[in-house]
Design brief:
mainly alpha; about 70 residues; single chain; about 90% helix
């Protein structure tokens, strides 16, 4: 293999590595955005679950009162 052939091979390899790094960088950014969206959705889910639990607790108290129970809070 001549010197120029080796330079050409190294140049091709460098270009391939640079392309792979660019693709990896894009994939990581996409994953970062997906994780951020998951965190936001998880927070919303938590808020919704707490609201539903509060509604269930209020309804339980109301039903207990309608049934003649003495439980009040």
């Amino acid at each position: 293999m001549t010197f120029e052939e080796r330079i050409d091979a190294l140049t091709a390899r460098h270009e391939a590595l640079a392309m792979n790094l660019e693709l990896l960088s894009r994939d990581l950014e996409t994953q970062r955005l997906n994780i951020a969206a998951l965190l936001i959705n998880s927070e919303r889910d938590g808020e919704n679950i707490r609201a539903l639990a509060r509604i269930a607790e209020i309804d339980e108290r109301r039903l207990t009162g309608l049934e003649g129970g003495s439980e009040t809070k």
